[in-house]
UniProtKB/TrEMBL annotation:
Family statement: Belongs to the UPF0125 (RnfH) family.
Gene3D superfamilies linked: RnfH-like
Coiled coil: none
Protein name, per record: UPF0125 protein CFE62_000225
Length: 94
């Protein structure tokens, strides 16, 4: 039995969504491998990039279910608090 899932990765200038059918007992790592998204984004390092399903962090060995959207997250380049502070300063809020 197969289920339908999608894998998504987004950068500033490019994003890609791949829909595919995988065996029912597949884990996130298998789905990412089957999607071949790593050939489009060879800099993705699954030992460093976090993954999730619908915005919730998961491990690579987590099972997927019908309709899941597997997301590969980029590493943070700046501290979110610092970014918000800088944005507020630019808007003269602080």
């Amino acid at each position: 039995m197969f289920i339908s899932v999608e894998v998504i990765f987004a950068e500033n200038q490019q994003q890609k969504t791949i829909q595919l059918s995988v065996p029912l007992s597949s884990c996130i790592a298998e789905v990412i491998r089957r999607s071949d998204i790593l050939s489009d984004f060879p800099h993705i390092d699954l030992t460093k990039n976090k993954v999730g399903i619908f915005g919730k962090l998961r491990t690579l060995d987590s099972q997927v279910e019908e309709g899941d959207r597997i997301e590969i997250y980029r590493p943070l380049t700046t501290d979110p608090k610092k970014t918000r502070r800088n944005r507020a300063k630019k808007q003269n809020i602080l």
